[in-house]
Amino acid sequence: MQVGGPLVLVGCGKMGGALLEGWLSQGMQPGDVWIVEPSAEFVQGFIARGVHHAVEAGDLPVDLAPAVIVFAVKPQMLAAALPAYKGFAAKGAAALSIAAGWRIAGFEDVLGASTPIVRAMPNTPAAVGRGMTVLCANARADAKLQTLCGELLSAVGETAWIDDEGLMDAVTAVSGGGPAYVFLLIECLAKAGVAAGLPEDLAMQCARVTVAGAGELVHIASEPASKLRENVTSPGGTTLEALKILMAEDGLQPLMTRAIAAATARSRELG
Q1: DSSP calls for 120-186
Q2: Between these two residues, 265 and 39, which has the higher pLDDT value?
Q3: pTM over 0.70
């Protein structure tokens, strides 16, 4: 993976670490990467592989000219961290943000309107290489930079691009929060199994393994999810009886639609 210059990774927690691991596994040279991370404990393994480490932005070499700065810190920490990178942006560094809720305009206000900026919304399955990331860019981000940012996020899963940044609120609601909804489904499925008479540990095992297996099936299948559902549903069988409830007018779809609408509205408020 060729970046075209040094890459600075600001924040190396779970998401930042997953990204860096993906980049290194795809051939990025460790010596081309600088991590800015206060906790050296998080990055010892990367340092041992040749990645540079700085505790804070002020510890970066003054003559460093990064091609891209990837902001992977928590959104509430970004306002304090961002101004320290204005000088690098002035020297031509592009910004790639995975900080939820931060609009492109917020970066332009601090780093300058001429800074190429790409905003990305990944989700937590990126930690196991199965993430879903949606990206959008400002007018200064050319096709070359967009291709590079797509490759950087593809290291941890699938990617898609949007032109309308306003859609990021819905993306946050669907894929950003989506893993939590699936985890809740596992909890509910297990509790329903207990209510039907299963021992608690067996019910949870059945729920966890079933959801994980179904996820893998939909991942590798060429058919849409609706077709996979039909394949499991025998006429007059037990699954059909359950689906009559889940697919009723007051079933799962209207409940999920309301939930996503609420999450989307909250994302707009926070932005």
Answers
A1: EE--GGGGGT-EEEEEEE-TT--HHHHHHHHHHHHTTEEEEE-S-GGGHHHHIIIIISHHHHHHHHH
A2: 265
A3: yes
